[in-house]
Amino acid sequence: MRRPALAILSLVVAGAVAVTGCAGPAGPAASGDYSVTVTTPDDGEVVLTAAPARVGALNGNRVIPFVQPFLDEGHVLVGYGNEADPEKYPWIQAELEAFTAVDDSDGPNVEEYAAWDADLLIANGNVGDFWEPAREAGPLVQLPETDWRATTTLLGEIFQKPDVAEDVIATTEATIADARLAEPVTAAVLWPYQENGTVGTQVLGAELPNFLGDLNITVAGSDTAVDGYEDVSLELLAERLAGVDHVIVLSSGDDLQQRFLDNPVVADIPVIASGHVTRFTDVQTGAGFPVTPMTVPVLIDALSGVLKP
């Protein structure tokens, strides 16, 4: 069953993580006065003592969109992991095409990460301590999972570019404000999947629903969801969608979305039968995981059927 790569936010760990003591290459010499302490949900307090002149993105499609505004001739991307189709992420297509992705499908590829000679490794996504082995290759910061504002602010601190962070946040918030609905609507976000020949769906709640809230779209939740996800049988879906104004159906990268909507049980659900359905393409679905300042315009365009009925 296909699931998006979403991480559970961990509790903030008390105490500092001394990343400067990690094994691996030291990278280019940094200015002696660089010392930045940041706090992240997964790492707690992290002390960085090497300026991030060379940056490695451990999962490129999730990290590069956040980092891109901070890159310049003094702060460069040196590689990324987690293979991603550049055409499915057009907002970072050039960056993805500039490197061959490191294969970390079986876990962090520490040897390949170390070859980047990076001053800083940045991760976003995956569960729990998945990225911990990467600390052997250099200093590691795990970005906040579901809050693009906090992530942008954090990177402004790391790159010592708070003005860039403020500009990115202000521009993105203005874009959201222009699109925000005057009156609230309720929506369900569904992700169809197929398992053992049976089509089902997940009702999800995480980073995309958080963003929808900014647009005055309330995502129907569930008291029985686990980590923001819940598998729901087609027979019970009508009950879950009762009272929902709109349904957003994500793409699974094949014809499953269409087959899901064509299923007689699904097609007869009132909100779907009335045509109040927004279908995300592969690219638009990718834009929601994670929601980043670069992908907000893509998502607003995808939601035009909800925002401009």
TrEMBL record:
Coiled-coil residue windows: none
GO process terms (BP): iron coordination entity transport
Limits of the Fe/B12 periplasmic-binding domain: 90-279
Signal peptide residue numbers: 1-18
Principal place of residence: other
Compartments, record wording: Cell envelope
Keywords, ordered alphabetically: Signal, Transport
Protein's UniProt name: ABC-type Fe3+-hydroxamate transport system substrate-binding protein
Originating organism: Quadrisphaera granulorum
